[in-house]
Amino acid sequence: MARAAARAAGTAWDGHRRHCAACTNAARARNWAGLCYPGLVLHDELLAARAILDSNRRADAQPITGQGMLL
Questions:
Q1: Has residue 59 got a pLDDT over 90?
Q2: What contacts 37, CB < 8 A, 6 or more positions away?
Q3: Are the C-beta atoms of residues 46 and 9 closer than 8 Å to each other?
Q4: What is the spatial distance between Cα 56 and Cα 50, in angstroms, rounded to a whole number?
């Protein structure tokens, strides 16, 4: 679910960036303050989706609670 949300947010951000000159220039220069308002919202959604995906991946890598090393 988190992967799908991150993929959808990335697709929405890429689609907006292709058609918005201000966001294209700001993203190229990594000047995130230069994004237009819809671009800023989409970029924040992308960052939030990636953070959730990252936390899910870290949680999946941890052993199950109460389960020790099996040898």
A1: no
A2: none
A3: yes
A4: 10
CB of 48 within 8 A of CB of 6?
no
What would the pLDDT profile of 14-36 be if each residue is shown by its tens digit?
Answer: 999 999 999 999 999 999 999 99
**How distant, in Å, are the alpha carbons of 3, 18, 39, 44, 70 from that of 22?**
28, 10, 9, 16, 55
Q: How far apart, in whole angstroms, are the C-alpha atoms of residue 68 and residue 50?
A: 30
- CA distances, 29 to each of 18, 23, 33, 39, 63 (Å): 15, 10, 11, 15, 41
Q: Which among 11, 25, 9 has a CA at the least distance from the CA of 33?
A: 25
What's the pLDDT score for residue 13? 96
Residues in CB range of 38: below 8 A, 6 or more apart: 16, 20
